[in-house]
Amino acid sequence: MTVLVKEMEHVFGVKEEGEITVTLEEEEEMNGDQINTRERPDSEEPEPETSKPARPHHCSHCEKSFTQLGSLKIHNRLHTGEKPYQCSQCGKQFTQLGTLKLHHRIHTGEKPYQCAQCGKRCSQLSSLKSHERIHTGGKPHKCSQCGNTFKRLSNLKDHERVHTGEKSYHCFHCEESFSWSRQLKAHERTHTGEKPYHHCSQCGKSFTQLWNLKAHERMHTGDKPHKCSQCGKTFNRLYNLKVHKRIHTGEKPYHCSHCGKSFILSRALTKHKRTHTGEKPYHCSQCGKNFTDSSNWKKHELTHSVKKRFQCSQCERSFKKLGKLKQHEKIHSREKPFGTANTVE
Q1: Where in the chain are the domains?
Q2: How far apart are CA 36 and CA 40, in angstroms?
Q3: pTM of this structure
Q4: pLDDT tens digits for 58-106?
Q5: CA atoms within 13 A on the CB side of 59
Q6: For the region Disordered, what residue ranges are annotated (predicted)?
């Protein structure tokens, strides 16, 4: 069981600095509240050891199952939002005791794990193992659907939801569901109004996610650190680079279940599906007309509010769209028969 405390930069598992991940191995090492066959937090009798233990405890919110009831109880906190462990220094809350203990290292600066090759120190064992793959280049976890490889098993499992469309994380304020816990956390801030990260030093804009702030700041600096190795194009976000690479590879990971058509972007698939369902989620507040596409909806709403800004220099007619004005101006420039002078509309 892996719990992500800070947001990943995108769905493919790239992490922002400072993320805390707790694995069962690290929980055991810290004498935390890990649930295993040697130590159980509930009164249930230990299960007999088998070479392939059954998973009798099923989550009612998603398809996951567990060999032990205590593991299921911890997992359920992802759905319920329960966080019983609180940091005494900053007040932040966590679902697991082991996660809290790792979090304390942010305050103490403790980094007990050191890379044997370059000397870099890490606060978590999993972070050290992930770092060591920089030297070896290993990405042992491969997606069976598209062939993408990952350094961490948890990143592969995150990625697989791109193909399955599984949405196990439900908002308690509304009916929205999400594939990743980080998405749910970010969404819940739209209800609470919480913006926990620092404001942009250039313009003062604030963000609910740290990686959004960092990406935003690159708009001011012009920094585009992510470069495509095939065409040289640069991007300010790693996710944008990954999407761009699909142009070269031809990868289209989003498939329509109705007709089998594939798409590069998930939002393109969402828009396409409306051609099958007839859904028109965008509603004009002025006249009640519905639209399947947000861009068409926005253009339509402008017809109610935007003035006719484009005025003809030859006559008094004005137009809402520049294209309409240019089309109209051809009337004035068009030559008339018998040498008569141009006339206005």
Answers
A1: 3-35+57-192, 310-339
A2: 6
A3: 0.35
A4: 888 887 888 889 888 888 888 888 889 999 988 888 888 988 888 888 8
A5: 19
A6: 17-59, 326-345
Distance CA 268, CA 47 (A): 48
* Residue-wise pLDDT tens digits, 192-201: 777 666 678 8
What pairing do the DSSP bridges indicate for beta strands 149-150 and 141-142?
antiparallel
Tokens for 23, please give them.
């694995």
Helix (H) / strand (E) containing 149:
strand 149-150
Pairing of strands 93-94, 85-86: antiparallel
Q: 141 forms bridges with which residues in the sheet?
A: 150
Q: 228-269: per-residue pLDDT in tens?
A: 999 999 988 888 898 999 999 998 888 898 898 999 888 888
Say which CATH superfamily domain 3-35+57-192 falls into. Classic Zinc Finger (3.30.160.60)
Amino acid identity at 292:
T
Amino acid at the residue 253: P
The structure tokens listed for 36 are 């295993």
| Buried residues in 61-88 as b, exposed as e (16+ CB within 10 A) | ebebebbbbbbbebbbebbebeeebeee
Asked if 2 and 23 touch (Cβ cutoff 8 Å), the reply is: yes
